[in-house]
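Below sits my pick:
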Amino acid sequence: MNPDQPLKQHLSLPHFLNVYGRILAIRLGLRFMGFRRLFHRLQQKTHRFQNLKSDDGVHMERVRQLSGIVSRVNRDFLIFSADCLEESLALWWLLRRNGIDPDFRIGVRTITGRFESHAWVEYQGMMLNDMDRISIIYTPMLTDTLEFDQQGL
């Protein structure tokens, strides 16, 4: 999915405020709690909203809609630009709150000796907030919540 595709629906004020607030909360949470504590807190808060993954067309349309809203708010309305980690965590959190179980990914690469990392969200193998080839460019290092626990992050 291309996050730059125009959003078909009008961005409502409740959607805007919901996403804007989540991105701001993520930014503050990362700053004051760190990634691990924030991720686990979000995981615990959204556990009760989880449903099983489904290939239902209604689910996919909702996934696309929410992904587009997060991308649009970040691109067009924030007074700061959320980085890939902030945007991906906000999208992952929002989808889980809507009963959808996305996959949160962190990948790494080294180019000319420089270490880089990148975060993105997938749902049923579909990239939601990045280009389709991102998992080729960045080697996925952490691919699900179990790995975060096992690797002590």
